[in-house]
Amino acid sequence: SVDFTIVNTYNLLSVYIEHKKKKIKSSSFDTFFIGYQKLIMIDVYYGSQKLFLVFDCDDELYFCEYSSSLLKREKKMVRGSRVIEINKAECGKSFINLNKKIIETLTL
């Protein structure tokens, strides 16, 4: 259901990544959308485990940690599908910072 699983083989901690490639310039938008149904499936299968939503835009990479509280947000309709809106200000920025966050999560 997600795109990547990263496992630290020394302590068996793992991190899950849901990668969304966005063919946009992030500087033109203040929010990202992710499918409500996708979040329901993430919640069912990965619930309390560490999972990052990654928005890979043409000019920058943004990420946020998944929380079931996202499911309580207002649903919007985009092209006939229910989506949840995530403000860019809630997200971390850059691949380097995502990498640091993953390493921090996988370390005891």
Overview of the molecule:
- The strands form two sheets. The chain has a five-stranded mixed sheet, covered by helices on one side. A three-stranded antiparallel sheet has the order 3-7-6.
- It has 108 residues and is α+β, with helices and mostly antiparallel strands.
- The mean pLDDT is 95.
- It starts with a strand and ends with a helix.
- Strand 6 and strand 7 form a beta hairpin.
- It contains two helices and eight strands.
Biggest sheet layout: 5 strands, mixed
The fraction of residues assigned to DSSP E strands is 35-45%
Question: What is the C-alpha radius of gyration, as a whole number of Å?
Answer: 14 Å
Estimate the helix proportion, in percent: 10-25%
Task: Tell me the strand order in the biggest sheet.
Answer: 1-2-4-5-8
**pLDDT under 50 segments (min length 5)?**
none
Number of helical regions: 2
Short description:
The protein has 108 residues and is of the alpha+beta class. The protein is 21% helix and 38% strand.
Name the descriptors.
alpha+beta, 38% strand, 2 helices, three-stranded antiparallel β-sheet, 108 residues, 8 strands, five-stranded mixed β-sheet
Any chance you could write out the topology, listing elements then pairs?
Elements: E1 4-7, E2 14-21, E3 31-35, H1 36-46, E4 51-56, E5 61-65, E6 75-78, E7 81-87, E8 92-93, H2 95-106
Parallel strand pairs: 2-4
Antiparallel strand pairs: 1-2, 3-7, 4-5, 5-8, 6-7
